Amino acid sequence: MSARISIGRYYSAASPIHALDPRVKIAATIGFMVSCLIVTNALELVLAGAFVLAAVALARVPVSRLLAQLKPVMFFLVVTSLFNLLFVGTGTELVALGVLRITTGGVQAAALYTLRFLFLLLMGSLLMLTTQPMALTDAAERLLAPLARLGVPVSEGMLVLSIALRFVPILGEDARAIANAQIARGAKLEGARFRDRIHAFIPLAVPLFSAAVRHADRLACAMEARCYTGGAGRTHYHELRLAPRDAVAIAVFALYLVVLIAL
C-alpha cells in the first residue's frame, strides 16, 4: 500500500534539475502548467512535449518512478480521452458505433487534452521527485513572503505543509503494517467485490487514525522540548541563493514561453 503513495518521496540523483534552486523549480513548474492550459495546436503541443521530455532527461529520474506517480490519475486521463473521442462531433466522421460517432475533431480533442494534462502532471511529478519536501516548503515560504506583510500566516502554513509532506510516507508505512496485520488475522482486503473491500477497509481506519494522532502528539512534544515558536524572525539552516545555473534555467524557460506565445 505504501508503495502506491508517491507524494513526498524524493529521488536522490546528481542531475542539473536536482541542483537548481527550489524557487526556480516551483516558479518554472507553475509557469509550465499554466502554459499547458493555453496549448491549442499540434505545433505548440510538440514544443511543450519536447520541453517536458528534456526536463525528464536532465533530471535522470527513472521512467518507472514517474509512471508510479501517474498511476492514481491514469483513470482520469483515460476518461477524459474517451469523453472527447466519443462526444466531440466536429470534423469528418471516421467510425460509427451506434449512436456514437468518432470524428477527426474528436480524435484531435482527445489527443490534445490528454497530452496537455499528461505533460502538466509529468512536470508536477518531476518537481516532487527532484526537490526535497523541506526545500519545497522553504522555497514556497520565500516566494509567498510578501503576503506576510498583509497578515497572512505564511510561516505557520508552510510548517503545516512540511509536516504533511513528511507524514504521507510514514502513514503509508503504517497503513501497510496495519493491513498486513489484518490479513494475518483472516481479513479479506483483496480479491473480493468492491463493496466487500470497502467494508473490509473500515477496520483499518481506526488504528490508522490512532497512529496519526500518536505521531502528532510525539511531534508536538518534540517541538515543545526544543522551544519551537516559528513565525516572524525564524531563521533557516540552509539559506537559498541563486547560482549561475539558475539564471540559465530562467533564461531557457523564458525562451520557451516566448516561442510558445509566438506560435
Automatic annotation (TrEMBL):
Pfam families: CbiQ
InterPro entries: ABC/ECF_trnsptr_transmembrane
GO CC field: plasma membrane
UniProt keyword annotations, A-Z: Membrane, Transmembrane, Transmembrane helix
Membrane topology, record value: Multi-pass membrane protein
Localization per Swiss-Prot or TrEMBL: Membrane
Parts of the chain that traverse the membrane: 32-61, 73-100, 112-130, 150-168, 242-262
The UniProt record lists the keyword Transmembrane helix: yes
UniProt-recorded name of the protein: Cobalt transporter
Organism: [Collinsella] massiliensis
Organism placement in taxonomy: Bacteria, Bacillati, Actinomycetota, Coriobacteriia, Coriobacteriales
